[in-house]
């Protein structure tokens, strides 16, 4: 559905940023602007400098961790205006904190709310999703190249879809996710 534009692919951006941001061993360090710049430089090797130049990805020092912000709507400006595809995904941020053992503590929302519209009237199709109280936490281990542990939860998920012929809504109750890697 989405095209790779200037080396940036929507379907790979979030996982790539999570893994790339954390792919080098962390060490207990002072969280500051210089560290945020170094982390940005490392991320740019995976998602391209254009992601930073166009405001799609940003890294800042945030208290005792780094906050990585992803603006999917800035990514949307790269889709050609004449495209019948339109979308909105809420800004997404997660925090990464280097640990003394070389791992990274990661915390953030489970996933952002949003919608996608494809086509034009009368064939317009729209899908919207909303997550209530979604959050995740995990420990990323650069030696494993994966989260050694991660958990997430949400109070509910609502999916809505609409086209010229039908309209539907699905709701899901509270749920949890958990993973462990060795």
What does this 3D model show about the protein?
The protein is an alpha+beta fold. Helices cover 20% and strands 42% of the residues. The chain is built from 4 helices and 12 strands; from the N terminus they run αααββαββββββββββ. A hairpin with a 6-residue loop joins β6 and β7. The two termini are 34 Å apart.
Give a quick summary of the entry:
By secondary structure, the chain is of the alpha+beta class. It is built from four helices and twelve strands. Helices cover 20% and strands 42% of the residues.
Question: Topology, please?
Answer:
Elements: H1 10-21, H2 33-47, H3 49-53, E1 57-62, E2 65-70, H4 72-76, E3 85-89, E4 92-98, E5 104-108, E6 114-118, E7 125-132, E8 135-141, E9 146-154, E10 156-162, E11 167-172, E12 175-180
Antiparallel strand pairs: 1-2, 2-4, 3-6, 4-5, 5-8, 6-7, 7-10, 8-9, 9-12, 10-11
Helix pairs in contact: 1-2
